[in-house]
Amino acid sequence: MQPLQAPNVGTKYLVYRFGFGHNFSFTHWVANAVCLSEPFMNQNSPSTIVITGASSGIGRELALEMARRGHRLGLTARRMPLLEQLREEIHSTINRDIKVELAILDVCKTDTVGAALHELFVRLDGIDTIVVNAGANDITSIGTSDLENELKLIETNLSGAIATIGAATTHFLARGKGHVVGISSLASLQPISNQAAYCASKAGFSMYLKAARIELRSKGITVTDILPGYIATDIVKGTDISKLPFAIPAAQAARQMARLIEKKVESGVVPAFPWKFVRPFLGHLPERFAHY
What we know:
- This protein has a domain at 3-42 and 120-279: Rossmann fold (3-Layer(aba) Sandwich), CATH 3.40.50.
- With 292 residues, the chain is α/β, with parallel strands linked by helices.
- The longest helix has 29 residues, at 147-175.
- A seven-stranded parallel beta sheet has the order 3-2-1-4-5-6-9, sandwiched between helices.
- It has helices spanning 11-17, 24-36, 57-68, 80-93, 110-123, 147-175, 196-216, 250-263, 272-278, and strands spanning 48-51, 72-77, 100-104, 129-132, 178-183, 221-228, 231-232, 248-249, 267-270.
- Helix 3 links the parallel strand 1 (48-51) and strand 2.
């Protein structure tokens, strides 16, 4: 899973428990086969998509993948130089004619999120989809000096996400349609030691998305909740996520996410194997499995 971008249930223990961990070459082959079966190019009409947290990790790879599929893009992050590098890469290696607009956005400054996004929406002549991807993760310990870090995770992953969804929904209500995509985590389903704040933030985010889906469906707005497992990024310093069971590269995750987004599914897990089959057990495991 993606600890660290979607921590898991002590995945390596879970994997062996279910008998998946004894032949990694086979499981990796299956995961790659599933990925290769996905359509590479967009079969739908190109749309305009805003992706938050696009300067690195999943957000960056998703921006590249959506550009390959022909979508117009609005990309946000705190670091403009990285966004500019990404836009240059899109124009030089994928398609120089794709519209890519950039905006600085710090989702923790919730009082500025609405204005920043609406200015971007205007430059894009309106948008069809927003991918609420900006997030953070860290290993934390309860009852130590980690309170500031824990509250920062809640602020980024939950408060910032709610502010982003609110701004996009205002835009979609005026247009009469839209698509909200939240990048949550499988950690929203399973409590994990030393990840209490992260798990809580993602559980809250997923529940918010579910409630939003019920509230906004009749207003023409679709809501998608994507739950990543272990995705190989540098979201947690000092942790090599690529060595965790069933971890996949961010580019591979982006291809699977793009397919889910274009299909406008209500909820999906990435990678599908094995987490689609393990998902029903998450949240019901004995405590001894809730460790890395």
